[in-house]
Write a sequence for this structure.
């Protein structure tokens, strides 16, 4: 974009979504607002009069918006619509969303695009179910600029008293959602009170008119200062150039910057920013701009990748919470396999748990085993591999997702990363110019001398499932058989190698990484290593598997949460329940059950001796030479 | 970011999303100001290339200046241009009002095209502010086997996570200009110096505000002989853009019927 003359300059338009209970007067309000701001085209009022007369009604402002014959005949709005208001400093786009419960998906389609929300409440009725639902939805969609109008003041006996009561109710409800309305304006949509001009009816009201309230809203906040994120849309090879096409969704990118691409962690430098039809080459691009990047190296990049600067990359995770709105015809259940879209990424996603449903009247969460159409729920989602994600309130692109079932969009929502560790492999080899030294004693020689292979026997399971007991006793038995063995226990590591680590999600992941690397070294030396770590995330276990190249055996030590909690040898569950330990696996943090372990040992069904027998038998069979 | 820059980047993002996920795809180029501005942005989105066909649904009733402009631009911009001849008016539903029948010819032309060339995506330069039915459109709008628009049951559209997959036989209408207004298009055309059919500019006190077939579009009284003057005129007018399109005024529901049955 080159420089512009005054005639091409225009302030950004403000998009306001209108929400509220059916029949609380949304469409009438917008029709009247169009009229009072002089935004209606010639002949429109006449046309409305004709349409209204034809149906035997007084002048019906809502017909301005109801463009389908069906809408006018039934006096309801079927789908979201956009209307441009001419206001002095900028255009205001009103997005009208229908209030009917079954049309909620249209309300979301409208609200998702908005900078601000206008909540309409009927002064006669006060807050109703849809008022609450729509307000919650605005908070779910992270729309924090809100103005409330209390409509139909022309019909109220004690307008002042009634408005003060409703204002207190709505402020309380919005407050619980973490929202504060910029204004609560008493209006009559039909008569135009306090829309553009101040009403004589409300001498007691000192706040702004609705149009004044609109002018206090900001259009989308600048994201240039945030850490850089570029979502990759495509890689073009139309001619001799190889151009990575994408959009800068946050931050600023400059020619010469080194970009780190997630999730695969490859880096290259921006050699050029391509453009078409410009007189001077681009040297930078900022949030909101589409870009074409030519890199100095031909690294593999594909649609769905996210580019950042190396020092501030997005979180990588294969498990996260989703606060979502369910629109599927069929209820959502645990185990469902769906497709997720976030940014330009599309991946299969699995519903691991339904964590809670939200009751919109009380805003309390409760347990449920399924999510019905139009419910709002928090679920736990998992992907096969770690993907770049972000918290929905902080990142308007990587933190937002939709879910698809076949061809149908069945949910939309925001990601919540509370308690979820960053699984980025920080151990990407930092040093350069290093190779590998080949030893003069190879693995086969060691195995031949001692009669068994080295191996990593990775025991994973909930705290209290019996991992340490099994590891210790199996080692004793194998040692007595003459095998070379060792046990790496999660707690023991923390006295030495991992003494610099605490219990944050990232530190736990690092502790597991170190355990995996050490176990791998022992196995290379020909030792059978048994590890006993909860290792709740499959990504962490995958990393240990990769470190132990080819001699990794995943053993799932299973016992139900109830049984583990009743054992509670270390008293940890009691403390977790009391809230003294944050992110405790099974209580307040997830455990991802291994998808295809080499061996499952159920310590709930069989006694300890039997379990040790099974484990030892497996190891002997797998590792004997 | 400036208003026009923001609109342009949003459009380019949509075009690239469509090109990456919806194949094969084509654009309906009406030769008017909107689809020509869109074509301009396609060249920006794909760095000088226009990587899918530009199709005109031709009724052979456009004004001569339109055909002249079309041939010049198709040649200069190296377009994969195709004219799709629409079936004659005598084959249209006789219960439609006369001006709507001309529009129905285009609907039928599009159906024939989709059936023959099996396009999964059709890019269109419609805008929400043009017409209240169009104000209800999605950016990616699925169409059934017969091209019909199920406006009562449109899929949700969250943020810019668009619906890009549809079952076999369905297609997507892709609307990258939905969020632009008429005056935005003119400001952009001026800023970028995009060529236009000269009929938009006033000659002897008349100009076309919206370009349709010569038998169903009428010019308006206007002294605006440059794009700057058009912008000044639009800032003051309260006459709707499509006032010169007779098919919009045949009856209360004529445009609704046209769109539900597959019109653009």
């Amino acid at each position: 974009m080159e420089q512009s003359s005054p005639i091409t300059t225009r302030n950004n338009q403000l998009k306001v979504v209108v929400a509220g209970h059916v029949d609380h007067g949304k469409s009438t309000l917008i029709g009247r607002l169009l009229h009072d701001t002089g935004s209606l085209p010639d002949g429109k009022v006449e046309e409305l009069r004709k349409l209204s007369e034809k149906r035997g009604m007084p002048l019906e402002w809502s017909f301005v918006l109801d463009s389908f014959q069906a809408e006018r005949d039934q006096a309801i709005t079927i789908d979201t619509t956009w209307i441009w208001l001419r206001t002095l400093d900028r255009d205001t786009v009103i997005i009208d969303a229908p209030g009917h419960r079954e049309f909620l998906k249209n309300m979301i389609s409208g609200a998702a695009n908005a900078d601000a929300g206008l909540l309409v409440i009927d002064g006669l009725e006060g807050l109703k179910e849809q008022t609450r639902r729509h307000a919650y939805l605005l908070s779910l969609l992270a729309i924090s600029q809100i103005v409330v109008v209390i409509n139909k003041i022309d019909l109220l006996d004690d307008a002042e008293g009634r408005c003060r009561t409703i204002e207190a109710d709505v402020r309380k409800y919005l407050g619980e959602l973490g929202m504060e309305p910029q204004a609560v304006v008493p209006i009559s949509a039909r008569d135009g009170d306090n829309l553009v001009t101040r009403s004589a009816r409300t001498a007691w009201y000192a706040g702004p008119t609705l149009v004044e309230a609109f002018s206090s809203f900001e259009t989308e906040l600048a994201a240039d200062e945030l850490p850089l994120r570029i979502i990759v849309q495509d890689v073009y090879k139309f001619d001799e150039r190889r151009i990575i096409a994408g959009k800068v969704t946050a931050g600023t990118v400059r020619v010469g910057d080194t970009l780190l691409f997630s999730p695969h962690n490859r880096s290259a430098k921006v050699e050029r920013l391509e453009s078409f039809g410009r007189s001077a080459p681009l040297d930078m691009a900022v949030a909101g701009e589409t870009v074409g990047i030519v890199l100095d190296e031909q690294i593999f990049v594909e649609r769905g990748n996210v580019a950042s600067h190396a020092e501030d990359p997005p979180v990588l995770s294969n498990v996260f919470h989703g606060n979502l709105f369910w629109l599927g015809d069929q209820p959502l259940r645990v185990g469902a396999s769906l497709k997720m879209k976030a940014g330009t990424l599309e991946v299969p996603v699995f519903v691991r748990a339904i964590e809670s449903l939200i009751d919109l009247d009380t805003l309390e969460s409760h347990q449920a085993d399924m999510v019905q159409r139009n419910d709002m729920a928090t679920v736990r989602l998992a992907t096969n591999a770690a993907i770049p994600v972000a918290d929905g309130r902080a990142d308007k692109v990587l933190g937002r997702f939709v879910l698809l079932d076949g061809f149908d969009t069945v949910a939309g929502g925001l990601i919540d990363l509370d308690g979820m560790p960053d699984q980025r492999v920080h151990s990407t080899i930092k040093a350069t110019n290093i190779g590998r030294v080949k030893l003069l004693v190879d693995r086969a020689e060691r195995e031949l001398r001692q009669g068994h292979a080295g191996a990593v026997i990775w025991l994973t399971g909930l705290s209290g499932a019996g991992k340490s007991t099994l590891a210790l006793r199996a080692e004793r038995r194998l040692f007595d058989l003459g095998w070379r063995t060792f046990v790496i226990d999660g707690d023991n590591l923390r006295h030495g190698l991992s003494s610099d680590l605490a219990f944050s999600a990232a530190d736990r992941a690092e502790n597991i990484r170190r355990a995996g690397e050490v176990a791998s070294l022992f196995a290379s030396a020909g030792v059978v290593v048994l590890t006993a770590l909860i290792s709740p995330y499959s990504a962490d276990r995958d990393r240990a598997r990769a470190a132990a190249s080819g001699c990794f055996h995943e053993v799932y030590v299973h016992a139900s949460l109830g049984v583990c909690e009743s054992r509670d040898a270390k008293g940890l569950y009691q403390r977790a329940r009391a809230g003294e330990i944050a992110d405790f696996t099974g209580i307040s943090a997830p455990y991802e059950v291994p998808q295809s372990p080499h061996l499952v040992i159920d310590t709930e069904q069989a006694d300890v001796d039997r379990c040790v027998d099974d484990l030892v038998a497996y190891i002997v069979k797998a590792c004997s030479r | 970011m400036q208003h026009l820059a923001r609109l342009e980047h949003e459009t380019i993002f949509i075009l690239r999303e469509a090109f990456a996920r919806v194949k094969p795809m084509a654009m309906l180029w009406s030769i008017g100001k909107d689809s020509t501005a869109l074509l301009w942005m396609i060249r920006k989105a794909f760095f000088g290339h226009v990587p899918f066909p530009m199709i005109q649904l031709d009724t052979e009733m456009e004004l001569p200046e339109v055909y002249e402009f079309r041939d010049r631009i198709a040649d200069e911009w190296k377009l994969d241009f195709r004219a799709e001849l629409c079936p004659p008016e005598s084959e249209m539903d006789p219960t439609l009002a006369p001006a709507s029948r001309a529009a129905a010819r285009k609907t039928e032309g599009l159906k024939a095209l989709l059936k023959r060339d099996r396009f999964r995506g059709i890019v269109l330069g419609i805008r929400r502010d043009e017409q209240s039915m169009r104000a209800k459109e999605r950016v990616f709008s699925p169409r059934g086997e017969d091209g019909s628009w199920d406006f009562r049951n449109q899929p949700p559209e969250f943020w810019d996570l668009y619906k890009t997959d549809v079952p076999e036989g369905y297609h997507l209408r892709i609307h990258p200009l939905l969020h632009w207004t008429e005056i935005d298009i003119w400001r952009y055309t001026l800023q970028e110096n995009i060529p236009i059919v000269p009929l938009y500019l006033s000659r002897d006190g008349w100009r076309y505000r919206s370009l349709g077939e010569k038998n169903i579009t009428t010019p308006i009284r206007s002294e605006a002989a440059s794009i700057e003057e058009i912008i000044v005129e639009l800032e003051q007018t309260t006459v709707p853009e499509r006032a010169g399109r007779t098919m919009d005024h045949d009856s209360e529901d004529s445009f609704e019927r046209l769109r539900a049955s597959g019109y653009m």
Chain A touches chain B through 67 residues (CB under 8 Å). The domain at 9-215 of chain A is CATH 3.40.50.300 (Rossmann fold).
